[in-house]
Amino acid sequence: MDCKAVVSSEIGTSHQKLNLPCQDYAQYCLLENRAIIGAVSDGAGSAKHSEIGSKLAVETVLGYLKGVEQHTVKSEDSLPPSLKNVRQIFTAVVKKVQEELQQLSDTNNYKIEDLACTLLILIATSEEIMAMQIGDGFIVIRPSNEEYQLLFKPNKGEYVNETTFITSSTAIEDMQVDIISKPISFICASTDGLEKVAIKLSNYSPYERFFNPLETYLQETVELKEEDYLKPFLQSPSLNSRTDDDKSLLIALFKE
Amino acid sequence: MAIGFPEFVDNPENRCPVLLLLDTSGSMAGPAIEELNRGIASFKEDVLKDSQASLSVDLAVVTFGGTVKKIQDFVTVDEFTPPLLKPDGYTPMGEAIEYALDLIEDRKVAYKNHGIQYYRPWIFMITDGAPTDAWTSASQRLLQAENERRLLFFAVGVQGADMDKLRQIASPERPPIFLNGLDFRSLFLWLSSSMKRVSTGKIGDSISLPPVSWGTIST
Q1: Which residues of chain B have a CB within 8 Å of the CB of A220?
Q2: CA of B52: which chain A residue's CA is closest?
Q3: CA distance B49 to chain A (A)
Q4: Other C-beta atoms within 10 Å of A17: how many?
Q5: Do A50 and A28 touch, CB atoms closer than 8 A?
Q6: Per the domain annotation, does B80 fall within a domain?
Q7: What are the domain boundaries of chain A?
Q8: B165-204 residue pLDDT tens
Q9: Would you say residue B134 lies in a domain?
Q10: How open is the CA angle B165-B167-B168, to the nearest 5 degrees?
Q11: Does some domain include residue B49?
Q12: In 3-state terms, what secondary structure has residue A90?
């Protein structure tokens, strides 16, 4: 069982116009090609240095989880963790991220809110996926021989322009976590810039014709490079006509 | 073989509901009501110039002159026909505010049922007088709704308005505004500009509204 993945983030047209940086950041790492750890973060538009916050959040997650997961992935006969374990793991990660953000804001005389960002994390092997989400954005998976499925409803406030951030005091209690213990074929994590084109919001169902080409691309491509497919897609005028926000895609495939 | 790009699902636009709550009591007769009618027409015209706002703004009109009437349920601006308001009767403002609060909550339920996302609703009240009915319960409900961030309430007083009363009714965070003369046109252009800002607002952002050049904030 092999895992392969590719990731890309692209600035939104509204950010370009205002000379703002891309505030999204997304990255992953593969552990011996058998497991993947991925993180996606969207820096708050209203936060002064959120592009620094999102990058630090993602890097902290990957650095921290690499250490934790390296040995758990190897122990093949261990039982799948319970939902409670999963929450504990992610709570520890979030605390670590909050510490790092606090430290960075202390050093640079920022307010912690200046680094506000959302955070989505996934840890997956071919047998299970654990995931969490704070704020908006989405993770869609396709278990083997099943339909696409959205892991969490976007965590928005009552109104469109409100969400929780990792710097919010309620971040840990608002954090959604899940574990799905069955063979997984495809994973896609993204920021809210793509939500309106990828998810049917009336019933929160993933749009098959959005995800299917991404999965096909992973299946049919030997050497994955973001500039060959994901980047051109994220830069495409047809997409930019539908969203002016920053957008990120992290896609992964497990293959026999 | 080249692999196609992902295709997009069509989701409804995010909505910004705006309820115009208009005093059409007898005292509005004459130039005031005429200018108000023109102002509403210019609002429609101006919103339609902006493609995002014209897709997003949902407008309803409730009048209170003699009785409280919903003369226009929520519609997108392109479907909105500016009314010709006729002044009549007393000023049941308290009842009108409570009715507006109910309409807003009903509208939210409709949005939710259809999976439509929405911005915080606006109630925009214009009056030249003072309530002639009981208004304490209305103002308590308003205050609670504002505190729970369920809506934004703006009160505009036209010459003759009891600004002291309006101050008691409106949220302390958003004191009433006294309109310069009968400059409804500038007021509605401001409302339109505000809606343009709201409807292009980003997730997590708080919107700064354009400066009020059409009146004085009564603190």
Answers
A1: 1, 3
A2: A242
A3: 18
A4: 9
A5: no
A6: yes
A7: 2-255
A8: 999 999 888 999 999 999 999 999 999 999 988 887 654 4
A9: no
A10: 65
A11: yes
A12: helix
